[in-house]
Design a protein that fits this description.
The protein has helices at residues 4-14, 20-34, 51-61, 96-117, 123-136, 138-142, 145-151, 155-159, 174-188; strands at 64-68, 79-81, 167-168, 171-172. With 189 residues, it is mostly helical. Helix 3 (51-61) packs antiparallel against helix 9 (174-188) and helix 4 packs across helix 5 (123-136).
């Protein structure tokens, strides 16, 4: 669901902009109304992606309880759960609870990487960068022009870099094109 019209109407009713806390609270309320429950316990330290970032990652990764080959290569890396790739082999299976645990561990790792690489970011910029790194890896984020522009404060320029990362094995992937656009929109919101 496109939430922008809801937030635009709320801004018009209130006659002012919304704080990030108000946006997060509204996201939670909309999730509850849609039957989407997003619960991750707070981490003892470090930043954590917001609900919008978690929804974005999960919506594009999807939940797969049996290992499947990478769509770009038709093989390695094998993937399971919510896009987990570490140590996965053909024929592996997980429960939904195990997939959620893998997701939590993976997001913890990428949250720490983004916090280190992009220490100044709004909650939505942070969530978009975590999604990018979750999908493409910390190394690709670290060497990207997107990160360089972000850290230079050129947020509009950084946002324009997301669409460039829509290929796997040199081939444009529709799913990656859609994901990069969703990340770009989240980054700019």
């Amino acid at each position: 669901m496109d939430r922008k019209p809801i937030f635009d109407e709320l801004r018009a009713i209130l006659g002012r902009g919304l704080t990030q806390a108000e946006v997060d609270s509204m996201d939670t309320a909309i999730d509850a109304a849609e039957g989407i429950i997003v619960v991750r316990p707070p981490k003892p330290k470090g930043r954590q992606i917001n609900a919008a970032g978690e929804r974005l990652i999960k919506s594009f990764e999807g939940l797969e309880l049996e290992a499947y080959p990478d769509p770009g290569t038709g093989g390695e890396p094998w993937t399971i759960g919510w896009g987990h790739t570490g140590g996965v082999s053909r024929g592996d299976r997980v429960t939904e609870e195990e997939a959620d645990d893998l997701f939590d561990n993976d997001t913890d790792r990428f949250e720490a990487a983004v916090e280190r690489l992009a220490p100044k970011a709004t909650d939505n910029q942070f969530a978009a960068l975590v999604s990018f790194a979750y999908n493409l890896g910390e190394g690709n984020l670290e060497k990207s022009t997107l990160l360089k522009k972000h850290n230079a404060g050129d947020y509009a320029g950084a946002a324009k870099e997301f669409p460039r990362w829509n290929r796997a094995n040199g081939k444009v992937m529709r799913g990656l094109t859609r994901r990069r656009e969703a990340e770009r929109k989240l980054y700019l919101s």
